[in-house]
Specification:
heterodimer, A: 211 residues, mainly alpha, 9 helices, 81% helix, elongated, B: 250 residues, alpha/beta, four-stranded antiparallel beta sheet, 11 helices, 10 strands, globular
């Protein structure tokens, strides 16, 4: 009940932090899509790039998030204290699942379908847009879902470098040993992750070609 | 009249590797079906892919309806050649209608003409347009799928059809049904066809001529009668395989 009273008293700030959090996740996922989907397609066309690119994305993925923020802060342009650094880090984390699943989704298309498409005179662009992307969409969306859910979680840590979001309450609560304050940040963040997972899972089932 | 297909001294060597097809020459006239017979790895499928340039020949020349294949943009060449493969390769996310209408759509036909042509093609392969047009490939039997594959290959009325073991994956009864239907189609269509198979009976049934391949070369080319009379060891081996004679006692 302390929590409800807290929300009632600070409704303006809560809405602002939720908004910041959603924005951090949305903008970083969008940027990761713009970079990651073409990159994943490129890997299906240039097999020699596959191992180095996926390897590099994997390395980024294994760096702990707080450490990655630390590495980014001293860098010019993309670093510093604030939302930019957080977005760069979130994009880096979102890239691997998006690139990998775009690649896997396309690579998983039946070789006979691909041969028939080429044999009947589709251009590479037609093959990609009319056959490979529609058939690979389910796997690609699964990657987007993973990226988004991970981003919601990682964005809470972004508060540590002044990027705002629900992590602000969590860090403040930890510092002042105030469980209500910690919960005030943690609970909506958790709900947001569950909602993103559910909505994108629904999109996956509705839009993806099955069988 | 120009032939549907003329091939002269065609060769293919894997970059930095073995030669898969060597010094291949033959002509397929309008209304003629050349059956390429041979064991696995004899170069039959490779030959088909050299014709529609899924593989680029390293030697020789291919002419489709009089035009040099190498001079045409590759997509234009392929849209003028019907292509049917054993695995069929129907698009699983397209209905039967959209699958059959694929090449006309790529060629930019008006929608009404595509719809007419699709109905015509479905009738040609013995499928009811109202029943099957809106279905997806996974809702069809193997035989129905292969009928759609043939209809798709014929939709843009290409002068030449390439068929790579089209009935190879079907059960024996469906296979015989489709072979007989296909025999009827051959007569009506008046196209040049190259039909790849390793099944001698199928080859003798459907081919106006038989080309026997071994090690990437054409070792025999002639009519079915000439094939039956041929003394070439590979021809003898294929005839024996089709008709093994009385079983040995043991």
């Amino acid at each position: 009940m302390d929590l409800l009273r807290f929300y009632a008293r600070n409704s303006g700030e809560v809405v602002g932090l939720v908004g910041q959090h959603v924005w951090l996740v949305a903008i970083s996922t969008a940027i990761a899509l713009v970079i990651g989907v073409p990159l994943g397609v490129l890997l299906t066309r240039r097999p020699a790039l596959r191992t180095p690119v996926l390897g590099l994305a994997n390395v980024f993925q294994t760096v702990p998030s707080l450490a990655l923020f630390g590495f980014l802060i001293p860098l010019p342009f993309i670093g510093g204290i604030g939302a930019t650094t957080a977005i760069v880090a979130l994009v880096v984390y979102a890239l691997l699942p998006i690139v990998r699943n775009t690649y896997e989704g396309i690579a998983g298309v039946d070789a006979a379908v691909r041969e028939a498409a080429r044999g009947m005179g589709m251009t590479d662009w037609q093959l990609l847009t009319q056959v490979e992307l529609p058939l690979g969409l389910g796997v690609m969306l699964a990657g987007v879902r993973i990226a988004t859910v991970v981003s919601v979680g990682t964005a809470t840590i972004a508060a540590a470098i002044g990027a705002g979001g629900l992590g602000v309450y969590i860090f403040r609560g930890v510092a002042s040993v105030d469980n209500t304050l910690i919960l005030a940040g943690a609970l909506p963040a958790a709900l947001m992750a569950i909602a993103a997972d559910g909505l994108l899972g629904l999109a996956e089932r509705r839009l993806a070609w099955r069988r | 009249m120009t032939a549907a297909l003329e091939i002269s001294r065609l060769g293919y060597r894997v970059p930095g590797g073995a030669s898969l097809v060597e010094d291949l020459s033959f002509t397929v006239g309008i209304g003629e079906t050349l059956v390429l017979l041979g064991r696995s790895g004899s170069g039959k499928t490779t030959t088909l892919k050299l014709i529609n340039r899924l593989l680029e020949p390293s030697a020789g020349e291919v002419r489709v309806a009089g035009e040099r294949a190498a001079d045409l943009p590759v997509t234009r060449l392929r849209r003028r050649i019907g292509y049917v493969i054993q695995e069929i390769g129907l698009f699983p996310h397209f209905t039967v209608e959209r699958n059959i209408g694929l090449v006309p759509t790529l060629e930019g036909w008006p929608p009404a003409r595509i719809a007419d042509r699709v109905r015509e093609m479905l009738a040609l392969v013995g499928l009811d347009a109202a029943t099957f047009g809106g279905r997806y490939p996974h809702e069809l039997s193997g035989g129905q799928r292969q009928r759609v594959g043939v209809a798709r290959a014929l939709a843009a009325d290409p002068p030449l059809l390439l068929l790579d073991e089209p009935f190879g994956a079907l059960d024996p009864i469906t296979r015989v049904e489709l072979q007989h239907e296909f025999q009827g189609l051959e007569k009506r269509l008046g196209k040049g066809m190259v039909f790849v198979t390793h099944d001698v009976r199928e080859g003798l049934l459907l081919g106006t001529r038989i080309g026997l391949m071994q090690g990437g070369r054409l070792v025999f080319l002639g009519t079915a009668e000439e094939f039956r009379a041929s003394g070439h060891p590979e021809a003898v081996a294929f005839r024996n395989a089709a008709d093994p004679g009385p079983p040995a006692r043991g």
